[in-house]
Structures are given as structure tokens and as C-alpha cells.
Amino acid sequence: MHAIETDRLTKRFDDFTAVDELTLTVAEGEIFGLVGPDGAGKTTTMRLLTSIMDPSGGEARVAGYHIVHEAERIKENIGYMSQRFGLYPDLTVMENIDFYADIYTEPRRGRTEKIERS
Fold first, then answer.
1. Which pTM does this prediction carry?
2. Which domain holds residue 7?
3. Least confident piece of the model among 6-10, 56-60, 70-74
């Protein structure tokens, strides 16, 4: 099984195309990075792959789950915290993690164990 598979994954914002027909495969256990200048579509790609945002076109699967039709299954199996913009500088790292866990309705019971495994 592939960890990530995309086929012509696309995201448009009105007339601007942020991700343009991205096709890639990342094997399970492979280390992979998205590298590029500001505005290259890295964050948008991550938001698509984490099912935070729906694509304008194309298909993608993460851990075997479809990013649109099985979004909740993806969210159960991965974690994503952006480096900037989504973090609150007046909160500690743990407070930011708890804040996002609350937003995604992650039960408090067992949360510490999940965080420690990550």
C-alpha cells in the first residue's frame, strides 16, 4: 500500500490555481518532503491531503483513505499542525495541541498517550 497517492490533484481559488494537477506516489515508510518558495502550493497540498480542504479536481488517498469520501478516517490516522499562521504565539506548544484536539473533538481520554506516540 502507498502512504500517499494523488492523481491530477488540483485546487483553485477563483482564477488562481494553487495546486495544478499534482500526481505523485509516496511509498509506505518513504521519507518525503514538499519544498518550494512561498506561494508554491505546499500548505494547500498539505491541507488537501489532511482533508482540511476539498480539492477542485483530481483524486487522492492517504493511508488508503480517499481524502473526500473518507476524510474522518484520515483525521483519525494522521496529525497535522502548521508551522505558522495556525498557531497562537501566546499559547504553549501543549496548549496549541490541546486547542486543535478540542476543535477536532478528540476525546481527552487517551489524548496524552496519542501525543506521546507522535
1. 0.70
2. 1-77
3. 70-74
